[in-house]
Amino acid sequence: MATAAYPTRRGFFTRPRSTTGKWSWFFTVDHKKIGIMYCVTAFIFFIVGGLEALAIRSQLAQPNGEILNAEVYNQFFTMHGLTMIFLVVMPMGVGLMNYLVPLLIGARDVAFPRLNAFSYWVFLFGGIFLYSSFFLGGAPDGGWFGYAPLNETLPGHGMTFYALGLQILGVASLAGAVNFIITIINMRAPGMTLLRMPVFVWMTLVTAFLLLFAMPIIAVALFELMFDRAFQATFFDPTQGGDPLLWQHLFWLFGHPEVYIMILPAMGIVSDVLPTFSGKPIFGYNAIVFAGAAIGFMGWGVWAHHMFTTGLGPVANSAFALSTMFIAVPTGVKIFNWIGTMWGGSLRFTTPMLFSIGFIAMFIIGGLSGVTHSIAPHDAQQQDTYYVVAHFHYVLFGGAIFGLFSGFYYWWPKAFGKLLSEKLGKVHFWLMFLGFNLTFGPFHVLGLNGMPRRIYTYVEGMGWDFMNLLSTIGAFVIALSALVFIANVVITRRRGEEAGADPWDARTLEWSTTSPPPEYNFEEIPIVRHRDDFWHRKYIETPEGEPARVLAGGAVATHEHEAGHGIHMPSPSYFPIVAATGLPLLGYGVIYFNSTGKALLVLGALVTMMGLFGWVLEPGAEERV
Q1: Pairing of strands 497-498, 547-549
Q2: Three-state DSSP class for 477?
Q3: CA distances (Å), 116 to each of 68, 99, 123, 167, in order?
Q4: Nearest Cα to 211, choosing from 164, 258, 265?
Q5: Could you report the per-residue pLDDT of 516-546, keeping only the tens digit for each?
Q6: Which are the contacts of 6, defined by CB distance < 8 A and separation ≥ 6?
Q7: Is there a contact between 295 and 265 (Cβ–Cβ < 8 Å)?
Q8: pLDDT tens profile 86-109
Q9: pTM of the full predicted structure?
Q10: C-beta neighbour count of 621 within 10 angstroms
């Protein structure tokens, strides 16, 4: 890509001068670069969270473990959950959405490019803020769920970092949600009606609405917790008239839509990967789209199945048991649609296809164990046991992570122009598949045998020794699979096979441009006439009903004269990173609310306001010369 120069201006509003090179990543507003940064950052946190998991499993590999003491174990246990949910699965999905949604709908960028950059930098600084707690007196140690009143009585600043860190990450999520909604509604290519959009775009839209309405709920709970801890309020203190159950209601009213925020992007990925490698359109497109929307809607009515043992009473328990059973219906519709897509197809068992099939298999297991939780008496037995841990890992690791890796392998050639090694990719899949089941399968048995969650050690003679050892071995197999993936990336970067624009014979618009795409995505905005429009440009149906390749159709743009394309794209800007920098400073100011803390509050507010002030006054784009 040619370097784009900008007119020189002096002062605060002088623009960054390059769209290439290492510094361009700090100032970019290109949705593709931001998507890559999201995914890379989330993968780094995946490694960190995985190391925490290995430490936890090593501690529990045998009775009376002494690798971690109780204090450190609680910190690792809490940060592992926070990391995997808020710093890995969610941002990995957001990263793929960032990169792909404009390409999938035939747009040149998102609706608000600088807001997009702001979202990334807030996410990064929020993660750094959370992890800085390890060096400032101790990390959060009350569990990722932060139940009251323990969340406000634990000593140290750990749970205050929890309250403020999640608030910062919530700002990033809200910014991204607004951007995706406006982009999808307003920026689709001509002819791309809502029911011609790829399923991944639909799932992005549903996820964005869930984020938009879920994040304010947890924000209320976190503000109350912050005031309880930092300013001696009593929202959750039962001795002062507060209500600990209020925290659970607020947290899980956010927390169960959050499950679908994590899983719906993976469902969208699988719904686009399976048709490509089955050689046929998605089975029951309308049904799978409306099932996704139904999951998003019904997800608001099941939160109290996390609270069956809190004494809500038989009426509430029965109502939420029924709603939990009902939400399995649209999920089942999706599963049968995916199986129907593969049924009778010309299957190609590529690495993306294997991860998608693995997603379906593991998600079915996680879904079935989830249905058992809908039965209130059964749930009372399983409550706070490893059976629950097994369930949500089969949904969020066997589901979301497998789906995300399917997307990585599928769209890697689009982003970087090279195919990841299929040989190493399949080794990665089978190691992860084996390690995952070896790790989390025994949790079902441990839970039904009474092993409670959140314990850092156990005595001999409980019957848990062998299963815990198997689980620990499985965790290290998963770690080995991650190393294989990293090796695949390194090898591909050095000498990978060139992919070409359409290596998979794919169906959707992103494959109609070069790999990697130019900054402006499409030299001419495509006109969409069909669902799976790119496939219809390449094939026609013969009188016998078979697809036949159109020799002159489906041409891919070459963009050979990119420097002279004459398309005005949003200019790089450093104001998003400036505005985002102030938020962790505000957080530190609240935690250390003394003279230094008050100075940090003032500094953080000034930095954020300066960034926003410059942002508002900065022109959106300048003509490139």
Answers
A1: unpaired
A2: helix
A3: 40, 11, 11, 18
A4: 258
A5: 999 999 988 999 999 988 998 888 777 766 7
A6: 15, 16, 17, 571, 622, 624, 625
A7: no
A8: 999 999 999 999 999 999 999 999
A9: 0.94
A10: 13
